[in-house]
Write a structure and sequence with these properties.
By secondary structure, the chain is an alpha+beta fold. The chain has helices spanning 2-23, 44-55, 99-112, 139-145, 201-208, 257-265, 285-300, 314-322, 338-348, 367-378, 397-408; strands at 26-29, 84-88, 94-98, 127-134, 152-156, 168-176, 180-185, 195-200, 215-222. The protein has 2 domains: 25-227; 257-412, no CATH class. It contains 11 helices and 9 strands. The protein is elongated.
């Protein structure tokens, strides 16, 4: 009998311990009176709207004509599972949905006068997609992307991270720091409860993202939040580390100093050794393919695994082939020319990252490189030397860094 009691006691202790562990890193608020919008935003107008949301007046309606407003204060279950509600976007279009999904859209519409819906940019007036298809959430990644107050985050179980109406969750980010994230959510307990949730990053990922087999399909935020980003960087490329002058052969007076530093900070290039960059060294075809693949992967933030069972560079070649980019211009170990690298990188630079109005024409560029060089010159990536491009000269590591630095950071471009 004593053994049985001891066993039951141990089981009870173990179950209580596991229950406490499951809740570690989480805290919930379900009373509107315990929340102050001013704790989340310093914008008085936004704070007033958020206080109204806490009190239960998001722009969510019970009818398709949007005449009867639904009430869903913090702590309520007034958005039950399966019940259809409606919200109206800034362009007047009405969207419908259920539970956390439509509630998050309604809160976002109340705050910013827009409805992200599926995270697709078409038709919006006030918003943009800050991130797509993330495998997890973290403070450093949110900082890099410039995620701000009020952003709408949607997770999904779809394998590629896209939204298709499958299982997932929608929430409004209120704040975050190095310790964790605080957000407003409907259906917070699986039964329609409206609450504010605080979680550590690990707990958020384990309970809402990777731990449930989900990805972050998209994060949408108002265009005014773009001021918190570094607008010079294209796509999702930004600084991932700082350059502290560690390369002894990259000096402040060198023409390539700022460009090498920029390419290093965005994660495109490394040194030949901890303190040496080797700026005059030639770039091989395998290295060129690697740089091109890194650019594309960082631009689209796809977190690609370049690992390969073959040579170190095979994963990078495979990646470019997936994009339909020709990699047969030279054998992997051969030096690549400036013209070959221009052709390769022009194929990788998306149209929206180009632009520019520079009309310089280099007379020494042959027809096979002409369109690529013209495109990169026009947007300030290529500058040439002495009025020429020198397409057949071997590409140096400093020149490759200049290409990548300017492609990633518009502030480094000519013009």
């Amino acid at each position: 009998m004593k053994k049985k009691l001891l066993s039951l006691a141990l089981t009870l202790v173990l179950s209580l311990t596991l229950a406490a562990t499951a809740q570690a890193g989480s805290r919930y608020t379900t009373s509107a009176g315990a929340l102050r919008a001013a704790d989340f935003t310093g914008d008085a107008a936004l704070a007033a709207k958020l206080d109204a949301v806490f009190a239960g007046t998001p722009e969510m309606y019970e009818d398709i004509r949007c005449t009867t407003r639904a009430s869903a204060p913090i702590g309520s279950r007034n958005v039950p599972l399966g019940r259809t509600y409606y919200v109206k976007s800034a362009n007047g279009q009405v969207y419908s949905g259920t539970s956390c999904y439509i509630y998050a859209n309604a809160v976002y519409a109340t705050l910013f006068g827009d409805v992200p819906y599926h995270g697709e940019d078409a038709g919006w007036k006030n918003s943009y997609t800050a991130a797509r298809n993330l495998s997890s959430a973290s403070y450093s990644e949110f900082q890099r992307l410039g995620i701000g107050f009020g952003a709408l985050l949607r997770t999904t179980s779809n394998a590629d991270g896209s939204y298709n109406g499958n299982a997932g969750h929608s929430l409004i980010i209120l704040k975050y720091d190095a310790n964790g994230i605080t957000y407003l959510e409907g259906n917070g307990d699986g039964k329609g409860l409206i609450r504010v949730t605080e979680r550590s990053w690990d707990t958020f990922n384990s309970t809402s993202v990777s731990g449930r087999g989900y990805k972050i399909s998209f994060i949408v935020q108002p265009k005014t939040a773009a001021q918190t980003r570094t607008p010079a960087y294209v796509g999702r490329i930004g600084k991932v580390r700082s350059y502290g002058g560690q390369f002894r052969d990259v000096r402040a007076g060198d023409w390539f100093y700022r460009l090498v530093a920029g390419a290093y900070e965005t994660g495109f290039v490394d040194g030949r050794a901890p303190t040496l960059f080797d700026p005059e060294g030639n770039v091989t075809a395998a290295e060129a393919v690697t740089l091109c693949a890194r650019f594309l992967s960082l631009y689209y933030d796809d977190r690609w695994d370049f690992g390969s069972s073959g040579a170190w560079y095979e994963g990078y070649y495979d990646y470019l082939r997936r994009w339909g980019i020709d990699t047969s211009f030279a054998a992997p170990g051969e030096s690549v020319t400036r013209g070959e690298f221009a052709l390769l990188m022009a194929r990788a630079l998306p149209q929206e990252a180009r632009g520019g109005e520079i009309d310089t024409v280099f007379p020494d560029v042959p027809a096979k490189y002409q369109s690529a060089v013209t495109a990169l010159t026009r947007c300030g990536v290529i500058t040439g030397s002495g009025g020429l491009f020198h397409p057949y000269d071997p590409l140096t590591r400093a020149e490759a860094a200049a290409f990548l630095g300017r492609m990633a950071d518009k502030s480094l471009r000519a013009g």
